[in-house]
Amino acid sequence: MQSSTEFVSRDSRAKQEEREGIIKFEVVENDNQPQSLIYLTALKNIFSKQLPEMPKEYIARLVFDRKHKSLALIRTSDSVALGGICFRSFSTQSFLEIVFCAVTQSEQEKGYGSHMMNHLKVLNRQIQNNRLLYFRVIKFVYLYFNAFYLVQIGVLTFSEH
What we know:
Blueprint: H1 12-19, E1 23-29, H2 34-50, H3 56-63, E2 69-75, E3 80-90, E4 95-103, H4 112-127, E5 134-137, H5 146-156
Parallel strand pairs: 4-5
Antiparallel strand pairs: 1-2, 2-3, 3-4
Helix pairs in contact: 2-3
């Protein structure tokens, strides 16, 4: 049993699964490679299912746009995408735009969303060469995801200095 003074991070289960090799993260983009296109198609389907009010054509256009990349959460046993974050980096303005973020319904509440955001923060630091970093969530946030984004936004605008 956990005492009231212990703190368990929201993504502790996901961290453990990553350490055990159950899940992994890959940055994918539309490079016409078969595996990239498989992951991008899976992410498009996840975003479409989890954001039903968003036009499917709009999701497809951005996910497959060559200016956008996606951080895909992959179950290693069968190489199936469980979720992801579609984003675009604006290095000259020192920010990263999060376009879509979703985890498939059956895999929610395991800390995957938080863990993906943490991976994206690390990736953004690498892209921005540790400069002042900002995340900008602008496109579309469906009602079910408002609480998640509000919590994450407080963590996502930060400076390393």
